[in-house]
Specification:
The chain is α+β, with helices and mostly antiparallel strands. Helix 9 crosses helix 12 and helix 9 packs across helix 15.
């Protein structure tokens, strides 16, 4: 059996993929509305709205929502990203109808009681404070802001504390009305699922939704920015990002494989050179993140303040060297890691449902897994070398530093070394 997609007359989409032999199912609604769809005064409201999802509806209290899903041994949760908000559940196959009913209820009929808004406001403010106290979390927000200053995609998903303190019921309902139309929603499910049943449930719960204009996010504009916060910490935190391809770019898979070869595991270049050979850090990795129209290849390391200059210099040297001597073995290993991560992840119905929704949102279709594997396999060593050379030649990077980093080389020095 294969992926099935149905679109209702109002634009609401349903996608499913059966996984024979499973007694459970993952189901959720993925909404094309995240932090990058917020106006400046709304920063953090997509995440606030997600928090309010389980605080009661017109017919259910917060406790009733929790009890109904847990009475059948299931769970329900949500998350917010820069481009998406998701509300999802995992249940036994026989309880799929209940899961869809609960998710529809919290999306269609939220109560937004004043008391519950204040409770969640306090919780989110604590979450913001916790993030600020976690250097290896907050540094990625700072790096994002340095790369995309004064842009929705560069702002924190959690939002600024002063904004969060000001949100009202009216603000929440306005954002919902603007961004939660049927054309912005996808009902995705995987596992022991019946597509025809899903379509009937979607028609019952969402068929009457009136279409609304799709919000168009501002195009991302990468800037070579730097943020440095000097603090008396045990570790100096280093995060360097280069502009990378977005999801729809022809070089997307090349960028993913390249990041894996550079810092995707214990055998990667950066891990071997900076940790194993020089002992400069405990943690170092590289990853390639992507959005609809842009991406970031990020390198992160934590080290002592006195080692920051050597660590950053060696990082730049390894990037430059990769354009000349990336090997076939490294390329094959990075490809294998990426394929294994994909295929192992898809053994989970939750991961598979998320993949269905994300790919349908990006491409308007769900490529077969074999197509994705073929595109990974098509990335060869010359492609990685060429990608590295283009990245180095462009020299477009952003830098975030946190901790005892007063004497650490800045972006100008690293760019100069990269160009030398």
């Amino acid at each position: 059996m294969s992926v099935q997609v149905t679109t209702l007359p109002n634009g609401f989409r349903i996608v499913s993929e059966p996984m024979p032999g499973l007694e459970s199912a993952a189901v959720g609604i993925w909404v094309d509305a995240g932090a990058r769809h917020e106006a400046p005064e709304q920063n953090g409201i997509a995440h606030f709205l997600e928090h309010m999802a389980f605080k009661g509806t017109a017919t259910r209290t917060a406790l009733q929502i929790a009890e109904e899903i847990e009475d059948v041994g299931g769970y329900i949760n949500a998350y917010t990203s820069r481009e998406t908000t998701a509300y999802y559940a995992r249940v036994l196959n026989s309880d799929l109808r209940l899961a869809v009913d609960l998710i529809a209820d919290i999306l269609r009929h939220p109560r937004f009681e004043a008391r519950e808004i204040e409770v969640e406001r306090g919780v989110i403010l604590q979450e913001i404070g916790q993030a600020l106290d976690t250097p290896d979390d907050v540094i990625f927000d700072w790096l994002q802001e340095a790369a995309y200053p004064a842009q929705p995609i560069g702002r924190s998903i959690l939002g600024a504390s002063d904004r969060v303190r000001a949100f009202s019921e009216r603000d929440l309902r306005r954002f919902t009305a603007e961004h939660y139309g049927p054309g912005q929603m996808i009902l995705a499910a995987a596992g022991g699922v019946d597509h025809d049943l899903l379509v009937r449930l979607a028609e019952d719960h969402f068929g009457d939704l009136r279409p609304c204009p799709a919000a168009v996010a501002d195009l991302a504009r990468f800037h070579c920015g730097e943020r440095r916060e000097v603090r008396d910490l045990e570790q100096a935190h280093f995060a360097l990002a280069f502009e990378a391809p977005g999801y729809r770019d022809a070089d997307f898979f090349t960028a993913q494989v390249y990041a894996g070869a550079m810092g995707g595991g214990m055998s990667s270049r950066l891990f071997q050179r900076l940790r194993e050979e020089h002992g400069l850090c405990y943690t170092i990795f590289a990853q390639a993140g992507a959005y609809a129209d842009t991406g970031l290849m990020t390198i992160y390391a934590g080290t002592g303040g006195e080692a920051m200059a050597q660590l950053s210099a060696l990082t730049i040297d390894e990037l430059k060297r990769s354009a000349d001597d990336m090997t076939e073995a490294e390329t094959a290993r990075a490809r294998a890691q990426m394929k294994a991560g994909l295929l192992m992840g898809l053994e989970s119905p939750s991961a598979r449902a998320e993949r269905l929704a994300r790919l349908l949102s990006i491409w308007g279709r769900v490529p077969h897994v074999s197509e994705t594997v073929a595109r990974i396999d098509a990335v060869d060593m010359p492609a990685l070398r060429a990608h590295a050379a283009r990245m180095i030649e462009a020299g477009r990077s952003a830098l975030a530093l946190y901790g005892p980093v007063g004497a650490a080389p800045g972006l100008a020095a690293l760019s100069q070394r990269l160009a030398a």
